[in-house]
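#lab-general

N.A. 3:47 PM
ok so I finally got the sequence cleaned up, no stray characters, all 100 residues accounted for. can someone with queue access submit it? mine expired

B.Y. 3:52 PM
send it over

N.A. 3:53 PM
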Amino acid sequence: MKRRAIRFLITVSCGGALLLLVLAPGTTFSQSPPTKSPQVFQELFDYSLKEKKGLTFFVQGQTIPGVVTKMFGDDAVEVRNQTSNRIIIRLDRIDAVAAN
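B.Y. 4:20 PM
back already:
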């Protein structure tokens, strides 16, 4: 089996300027997303828990609005909203959190 070296040549026109990008053979791109620390959202969770204010959780393509009612360490958070009294969201599945 022969291995061929493939080079990618990408040109992008941006406002009259030309950008040229050459990728050498063996260049790899990570296909896994960067890991997020559960502490990243901690300030918003505390705010929602103390002030009873709603947050919007973005979890793997789904949007879940709710108020934080309980936290389970660095593993999960319990949320309630108008349609559900108890929703458990794993922190490692959260993509983003927005305060209302």
